[in-house]
Amino acid sequence: MADKLVDIKQIEQISNHLYNGVVKIIDNARHQVAVYVNAQTSITYWNVGRYIINELNYQPYSAYGQKILATLSQKLTERYGKGFTYSALSRMMKVARIYCDESMFATLSQTLTWSHFIELITIDNDTKRLFYQQMSIAEHWSVKKLQTKQDEMTFERSLIAAKPDSEIVKKLETVSPKHIDADIILKLRSANTPHIFLTNSGLLTNSTDLL
Q1: pLDDT tens digits, residue range 88-137?
Q2: Low-confidence ranges of the chain (pLDDT < 50)
Q3: How far apart are CA 147 and CA 143, in angstroms?
Q4: What share of the chain is helix, strand, coil (3-state, %, to 5)?
Q5: pTM, rounded to two decimals
Q6: Residue 6: what pLDDT?
Q7: pLDDT of residue 181
Q8: How far apart are CA 129 and CA 108, in angstroms?
Q9: Domain containing 36: what range?
Q10: 145 domain residue, yes or no
Q11: Is position 88 within any domain?
């Protein structure tokens, strides 16, 4: 009887071990597929935008170009369904224009979704856009989180915003999930409280020496 209980316990332990291992393999594979599909979707839309810009040369935003784009949108929608409205094509062109470096865009697409790019291109200032881009990557912001951070004026409230653009860009280019300079982090300050720096990963307080 005791031997049977031991066998049952061993079977359960081995089964659980195998289960956890198989789940890890499947989940990792699905994650890789999701990352690949997301990246390829973004790259496809980027290529569409760049192609339209190149083919229309300097006319994509003229009245003539707008009529061509509207006709193109209708034809693509008839063939592929949703996703190719006039507005969608315009956004593809804008993303391709702002993120004009194909290699850089491909790299960013490994982390950011197309919806991230759509949100980022609404920011006219290049330095400000870079801030939200890099923080989205480093802090794993969802699109909703990105929108919230913009509404909260996170960049404007950070210590780094007061520095020259060249210095801001230099620091932002070093940002990664494992490295965020303290002056890039959101500063929360009230009348009788110390400076508090907040990230998703924790708090740094009393950092007055950074000012």
Answers
A1: 999 999 999 999 999 999 999 999 999 999 999 999 999 999 999 999 99
A2: 188-211
A3: 6
A4: 65, 5, 25
A5: 0.75
A6: 59
A7: 64
A8: 13
A9: 1-108
A10: no
A11: yes
d(CA 151, CA 163): 21
Which SS3 state, helix, strand or coil, does residue 82 take? Answer: coil
Residue at 150 is within a domain: no
Nearest to 184 by CA among 145, 127, 143, 144: 127
Structure tokens at 144: 């909703």
Residue by residue, DSSP assigns 30-58 as HHHHHHHHHHHHHHHHHHHHHHHHHHHTT
- How many structural domains comprise the chain? 1
Mind giving me the DSSP string for 164-180?
A: -HHHHHHHHTT-BTTB-
Q: Where do we find the tokens 């063939």?
A: 79
- 20-30: per-residue pLDDT in tens? 888 889 998 98
13: burial class by Cβ within 10 Å (0-12, 13-18, 19+)? exposed
Is residue 122 within 8 A of residue 132, CB to CB? The reply is no
